[in-house]
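Appendix B, Record 12. Input sequence as logged:
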Amino acid sequence: MANILCTGIATVDIINELDQYPAEDDEVRILSQEKCRGGNSANTAVILSHLGHQCHWAGTAVAPLTGDHDCQIILDDLQQHNINIQYSRFLDQGKVPTSYISLSRKTGSRTISHYRDLPEYPFSAFKQIPLENFDWLHFEGRNIKQTIKMMQFCREKTPTTPISLEIEKNREAIETLIHYADIIFFSRQYALMNAYKDPRSFCIDFSQSYPEQIIFCAWGKAGAGAAFQQQFYWQDGIKIKTVDTLGAGDVFNAGIIHQQLMQQSIQHSLQYACQIAAEKCTTKGLIA
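Logged structural output:
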């Protein structure tokens, strides 16, 4: 299978399961609590590893000898899932990013509060990676000034290696990254924040602006859309009993990358990615 590099963050997730979301100023009892590894690019790497690929994670962490037990949770999990971390950057101080997640048992949806006190992964570390060894390069749309240098470097060093980019939130100048990617994963949240009310108009408009890129946009339980050269593709969501949506977007992205590496069509890729994302939502945890 393919050799894949995922660049971004890994987090510790503290997941509090509630019967339902509380109103402001309410006091409620937590039904269960779990602490585990999270982070978009790390999640994507883990899923791709389970799909048979050799995955590397490039990100920032705290050196194990500092005694940061949360960082050890991240490292142990990545090792368990056979993720290579040789290109990651380890610092002598700081606190790994932490996501505090409220998971509603009633709806299966999640609300996240994120704390970060650790520098982002820098271009100075990324440029040391032998990019010629990889068949696919995946980036998170964050840390814009450094990430654009990384993506430009990829195009200079390995111009034919496919690049995918996840754009989850509106960030200043984030659109400058799009030109350097082949596949863009946009979130429903991003589309809504840009005044789009449906995936079709969003995908087609962005495909018109970026005709060389394949545009994907997952739309929650409704399904997912894609566009390439203004041709729109759609896959209905699969009806399931939702238990846990945490990480479903990362599973969807991994499914698309997996299918594209196998040179499958856009429509087939959508169908597969929606299927495995739905399966993930029927159970707790990242792996269905």
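The chain has a mean pLDDT of 93.
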